[in-house]
């Protein structure tokens, strides 16, 4: 294995925290991984990795070498693409919240593959917050506000939200005319995976935001279960408009309190702060931004 391939293998080990997972990603035997790392450490005269029975972590020297390897590999990929005029190639690993994938990304992927036929996309779907480095993901399409300082995000869109319920629910509990009218109502709770808390309902009142927590017979962590519970009439809920456009058009759901709409929520494409953008991630980011624009998501000011 030449030095560049050894660098690629080493960066994968650091990102995956595992010899076995890195070997699978690079499609080489695990014995080759062990041999290459031993040769690198001998040549450099430093220990690069700390190995335990459960995880592999870089030493201080290993972390510094990892960052240098990333810069070198990204520069080579950029240079070759610029001078050869070649389109980006390779595997792009992305994590997407499931409903964003189905509504925004998947319908447009045939166009993406027409433009970039040599990129293979490995897409995972989840509502949870993903550890990009640990799980070997190039970028994540995230819904909500960013919290991790180790990540960089490009905001692609602001998604409009609304408050809604079924006609049967409103017939039983009444239709509130204002926020005070929510007293005695019930909501379907969406529970934060990270904190375990049920998120309150949020309403824009002038320039400020007012939150209200109602009794919830059911609280869930998954988007699909949340939408199903709303459609079953289990309470008031707040959702991105794109989730329920069909329900609103058919009358299955009714928007309430439109004068106090929830604040819009950003959608961002997130990647590691420590990494330069690879050509694959860069072209995907630009395509995704156009995709959200084309599907009429409300763009940020």
From TrEMBL:
Ranges where the HTH lysR-type domain occurs: 1-59
Domain of life the protein comes from: Bacteria
InterPro entries, alphabetized: LysR-type_TF_proteobact-type, LysR_HTH_N, LysR_subst-bd, WH-like_DNA-bd_sf, WH_DNA-bd_sf
Keyword line: DNA-binding, Transcription, Transcription regulation
GO molecular function, one term: DNA-binding transcription factor activity
Alphabetical list of Pfam families matching this protein: HTH_1, LysR_substrate
Biological process (GO), any one: DNA-templated transcription
Gene3D superfamilies associated with the record: 3.40.190.290, Winged helix-like DNA-binding domain superfamily/Winged helix DNA-binding domain
UniProt record similarity statement: Belongs to the LysR transcriptional regulatory family.
Protein name as annotated: HTH-type transcriptional regulator DmlR
Originating organism: Paraburkholderia solisilvae
């Amino acid at each position: 294995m030449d030095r560049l391939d050894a660098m690629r293998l080493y960066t994968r080990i650091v990102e995956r925290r595992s010899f076995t997972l890195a070997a699978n990603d690079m499609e080489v035997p695990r014995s080759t991984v062990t041999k290459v790392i031993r040769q690198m450490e001998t040549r450099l005269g430093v220990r690069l990795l700390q190995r335990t029975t459960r995880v592999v972590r870089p030493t201080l020297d290993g972390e510094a070498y990892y960052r240098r390897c990333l810069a070198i590999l990204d520069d080579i990929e950029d240079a070759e693409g610029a001078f050869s005029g070649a389109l980006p190639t390779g595997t792009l690993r992305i994590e997407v919240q499931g409903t964003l994938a189905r509504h925004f990304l998947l319908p447009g992927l045939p166009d993406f593959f027409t433009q970039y036929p040599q990129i293979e996309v490995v897409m995972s779907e989840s509502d949870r917050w993903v550890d990009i480095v640990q799980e070997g993901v190039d970028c994540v399409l995230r819904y909500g506000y960013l919290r991790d300082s180790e990540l960089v995000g490009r905001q692609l869109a602001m998604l409009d939200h609304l408050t809604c319920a079924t006609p049967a629910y409103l017939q039983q509990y009444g239709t509130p005319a204002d926020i005070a009218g929510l007293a005695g109502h019930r909501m379907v709770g969406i529970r934060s995976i990270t904190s375990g808390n049920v998120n309150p309902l949020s309403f824009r009142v002038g320039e400020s935001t007012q939150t209200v927590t109602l009794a919830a017979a059911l609280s869930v962590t998954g988007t699909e279960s949340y939408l199903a519970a709303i459609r079953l009439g289990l309470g008031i809920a707040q959702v991105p408009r794109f989730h329920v456009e069909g329900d609103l058009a058919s009358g299955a759901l009714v928007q309430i309190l439109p004068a106090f709409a929830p604040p819009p929520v950003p959608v961002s494409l997130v990647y590691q702060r420590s990494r330069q953008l690879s050509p694959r991630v860069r072209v995907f980011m630009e395509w995704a931004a156009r995709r959200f624009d084309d599907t009429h998501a409300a763009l940020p000011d």
